[in-house]
Amino acid sequence: MKHNNFDAKVNNLPEKAKRKRVTNPDECKFDLGDDITKLFMGFHEALPLYQQELGLTAPEDRVRTQAAVTLQSKVMQCWRRHFGDNVKRGKYDRLFLFNKGYVILFKKLGRNGMPMNIKTKNSTSIGNQYQGNLFGPDEDGNSPILFFGYTTNDFGVIVHPRIVYIDEEKVKWIIDEEGIQDNTLPQLDFAPTPPTGGVSVKKSAKALIKKVE
Questions:
Q1: If we measure between CA atoms, which residue out of 65, 33, 42, 68 comes closest to residue 150?
Q2: Please, what sign has the CA dihedral across residues 121, 126, 132, 133?
Q3: pLDDT-above-70 percentage for the chain
Q4: Is the pLDDT of residue 8 over 70?
Q5: How do residues 82-120 score in pLDDT, each as one tens digit?
């Protein structure tokens, strides 16, 4: 009997409070407005800077996370040009963008569309949109969390930049690159990468909103 009472108490524990839900990409698009275009523009502006800086180190001399860290730094540098002091440095020295009520993190994504990181208590809270002081005093603990992410293909080429909304540790929807509006993103033509650089970027230009099935 005592065992049954214990089970009942466990089942009645309150669920952790959630951040504001964003049910579909159109809601996010409305909230962020033209700033969605700026996110993609900043990403494109960062790519040649990333190529240039990473190319200074031969592939055999790079540490494991050097490419990802260099790209993140260059994206934040370019986002700062568009968003100023809304680029923040939070807990664990994490750089993020806090803009129009959204926390936006930059991350490499796996094939399943989820961020590539070691699972921790903090990453679980982020993946479940839990309320709380996850990033520091510069955000309110209730703002929805987005990822601006990318993947690399089998040849190491950077492809498919996109905005991802994750809840219940699943990708709920994305806004990916192909048509936010025609001709709103710069038509960038990247110079061929030197053989020692080992850095490649796939040309891309427009943006499309896509609901995850």
A1: 68
A2: positive
A3: 77
A4: no
A5: 999 999 988 878 899 999 999 999 999 998 899 988 888
Strand, coil or helix: 64:
coil
Residue whose pair of structure tokens reads 């803009």 in the numeric block? 99
**CB within 8 A of 62, min separation 6: which ones?**
54
CB contact at 8 A, 176 and 161: yes
Cα(108)–Cα(118) distance, integer angstroms:
13
CB atoms within 10 A of CB 197: 16
pLDDT number for residue 202: 56
Amino acid found at 164: V
Q: What would the pLDDT profile of 135-191 be if each residue is shown by its tens digit?
A: 877 778 899 999 999 999 888 889 899 999 999 999 999 998 774 654 344 444 333
Contacts of 169 by beta carbon, 8 Å cutoff, 6+ apart:
114, 124, 127, 128
CA 155 to CA 48: how far, in whole Å? 18
